């Protein structure tokens, strides 16, 4: 097999952008081109002001600055990039289906299939095609079937190389991964991808498996992580009625080396583009094979997560004397976790939706999320008209403006800066009694209570 000189990545999103930037930084002799059909997104990746990159990740600007224009290129010319590449990563979005069979559960593979067809139509030389997007098990089979039936005499080898990076720590996770997983059938193709990662990842951390194990491992890793969050969130509700403190419980159980301390932070509910989608995929696959007990077991992780979001919103309503109609509720945070501008499946969206149903006035402040994105998220739910969302929701750029004259503050994202606000100034500007509902157990109860806030935190 030829040495890999040119790599193309289709999809310049949260996965493709950071991942391929790090590959380019670490492999200066390989030319990496990231393509996307979204012209605005590519323009933003090419923006001379690195503050305008379309994905916010700590440290990403430095990686892009080191490689862009040297061996890292962003382009909208998908055909050219496919034609020239030795290896093609597919990093396009695979949202949950919103129509037809598997609606609300199965992954929509429309974008993946379009990519495969485009590669099939354009390629004139042999290629290694790497699945990077999270996909249901056996997607590689579909890819292979499309690529092997072009009749063009071009050979395609398909690899699965799931991405385990977490947003907010993407660059760190890519630079120093716990493991790299490569699934495939062709030894030479597998070796070609191993050689790329071996530029910076110790060989013993690069695992190779068959295609299906690799695809399934990605879903299972996310399902296990989400399950831990739902498990501790279930216990948070129990803590609230029994007088236990969920942080103390997490600490006590996390010191058992068999359980471990990570992913035991109770919250208003997990969000992000992966957890819910991947579990729904797992549930869908299990049901397809008539494994209903397996499907029900994993589905419960999602049901508990939905319950946690609803219960947080209901607690706000109940505490504010059973009505939030016309009351001003300030949201600190809209992103699904700190250090990202990504809002996909963020708990904040669902909590807001619930409060808006009760005609609350919601004022949002998030250090990285734009007003446009907040409205887009709410409009996407389709619960009320876009006009109603704009009438009830205001997005501001100054946190003190958000909380001014508010009946209550709800902390939805664990941004560090919230801890350092002038809480005495905030208290002075708020309606009395001044309520804080901390969905992240982020703030200091003692400090807030001394200032006269009525403070509620998940799991206390
Ligand atoms: C996840 C996986 O971690 C990553 O390996 C995979 O590639 C993509 O999906 P991500 O969604 O970016 O990454 O973020 P993650 O840190 O896993 O957090 C997911 C959600 O769970 C967030 O909303 C977070 O706030 C929440 N969470 C996480 C908790 O509520 N408590 C915890 O203890 C950990
Ligand atoms: P992820 O979190 O998986 O990276 P994103 O939605 O952030 O998902 O990014 C996926 C990107 O893939 C989007 O920018 C989208 O425009 C792009 N994309 C989807 N299908 C194609 C295609 N056929 N050709 C080029 N780009 C595509």
TrEMBL record:
Record keywords, A-Z: NAD, Oxidoreductase
Quote the EC number.
Answer: 1.1.1.22
Locate the UDP-glucose/GDP-mannose dehydrogenase C-terminal domain: which residues? 330-445
Q: Does the keyword Oxidoreductase apply?
A: yes
Q: Does the keyword Signal apply?
A: no
The cross-references to InterPro entries, in alphabetical order and at most eight, read: 6-PGluconate_DH-like_C_sf, NAD(P)-bd_dom_sf, UDP-Glc/GDP-Man, UDP-Glc/GDP-Man_DH_C, UDP-Glc/GDP-Man_DH_C_sf, UDP-Glc/GDP-Man_DH_dimer, UDP-Glc/GDP-Man_DH_N, UDPglc_DH_euk
What SMART domains does this protein's entry cite?
Answer: UDPG_MGDP_dh_C
- What Pfam families does this protein's entry cite? UDPG_MGDP_dh, UDPG_MGDP_dh_C, UDPG_MGDP_dh_N
Q: Which domain of life is it from?
A: Bacteria
Show the SUPFAM superfamilies listed in the entry. 6-phosphogluconate dehydrogenase C-terminal domain-like, NAD(P)-binding Rossmann-fold domains, UDP-glucose/GDP-mannose dehydrogenase C-terminal domain
Give the pathway.
Nucleotide-sugar biosynthesis; UDP-alpha-D-glucuronate biosynthesis; UDP-alpha-D-glucuronate from UDP-alpha-D-glucose: step 1/1
Class of enzymatic activity (EC top level): oxidoreductase
Catalytic reaction(s) noted: UDP-alpha-D-glucose + 2 NAD(+) + H2O = UDP-alpha-D-glucuronate + 2 NADH + 3 H(+)
Family affiliation: Belongs to the UDP-glucose/GDP-mannose dehydrogenase family.
This protein is called UDP-glucose 6-dehydrogenase
Please report the organism this UniProt entry assigns to the protein.
Sphingobacterium pedocola
The beginning of the lineage is: Bacteria, Pseudomonadati, Bacteroidota, Sphingobacteriia, Sphingobacteriales
């Amino acid at each position: 097999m030829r040495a890999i000189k040119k790599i193309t990545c289709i999809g310049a999103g949260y996965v493709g952008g950071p991942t391929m930037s790090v590959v380019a930084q670490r492999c200066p002799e390989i030319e990496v081109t990231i393509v996307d059909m979204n012209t605005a997104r590519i323009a933003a990746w090419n923006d001379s002001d690195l503050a305008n990159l379309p994905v916010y990740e700590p440290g990403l600007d430095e990686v892009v600055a080191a490689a862009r224009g040297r061996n890292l290129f962003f382009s909208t010319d998908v055909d050219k990039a496919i034609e020239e590449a030795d290896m093609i990563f597919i990093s396009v979005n695979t949202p949950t289906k919103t129509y037809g069979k598997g609606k609300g559960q199965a992954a929509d593979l429309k974008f993946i299939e379009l990519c495969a067809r485009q590669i099939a139509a354009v390629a004139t030389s042999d290629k290694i095609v790497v699945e990077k997007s999270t996909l249901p098990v056996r997607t590689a089979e579909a890819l292979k079937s499309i690529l092997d039936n072009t009749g063009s005499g071009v050979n395609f080898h398909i690899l699965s190389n799931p991405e385990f990076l977490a947003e907010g720590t993407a660059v760190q996770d890519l630079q120093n991964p716990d493991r790299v997983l490569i699934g495939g059938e062709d030894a030479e193709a597998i070796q070609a991808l191993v050689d790329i990662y071996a530029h910076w990842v110790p060989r013993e951390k690069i695992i190779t498996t068959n295609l299906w194990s690799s695809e399934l491992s990605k879903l299972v890793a996310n399902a296990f992580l989400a399950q831990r969050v739902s498990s501790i969130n279930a216990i948070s509700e129990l803590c609230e009625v029994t007088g236990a403190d969920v942080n103390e419980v997490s600490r006590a159980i996390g010191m058992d080396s068999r359980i471990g301390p990570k992913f035991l932070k109770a919250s208003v509910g997990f969000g992000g583009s992966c957890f819910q989608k991947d579990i729904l995929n797992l549930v869908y696959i299990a049901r397809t094979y008539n494994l209903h007990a397996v499907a029900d077991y994993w589905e419960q992780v999602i049901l508990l997560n939905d319950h946690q979001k609803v219960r947080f919103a209901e607690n706000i309503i109940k505490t504010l004397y059973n009505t939030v109609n016309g009351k001003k509720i300030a949201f600190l945070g809209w992103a699904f976790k700190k250090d990202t501008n990504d809002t996909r499946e963020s708990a904040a969206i669902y909590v807001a939706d619930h409060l808006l149903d009760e005609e609350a006035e919601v004022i949002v402040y998030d250090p990285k999320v734009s007003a446009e994105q907040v409205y887009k998220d709410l409009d996407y739910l389709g619960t009320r008209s876009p006009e109603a969302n704009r009438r009830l929701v205001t997005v501001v750029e100054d946190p003190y403006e958000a909380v001014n004259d508010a009946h209550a503050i709800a902390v939805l994202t664990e941004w560090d800066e919230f801890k350092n606000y002038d809480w005495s100034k905030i208290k002075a500007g708020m309606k009395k009694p001044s309520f804080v509902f901390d969905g992240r157990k982020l703030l200091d109860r003692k400090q807030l209570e001394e200032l006269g806030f009525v403070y509620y935190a998940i799991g206390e």
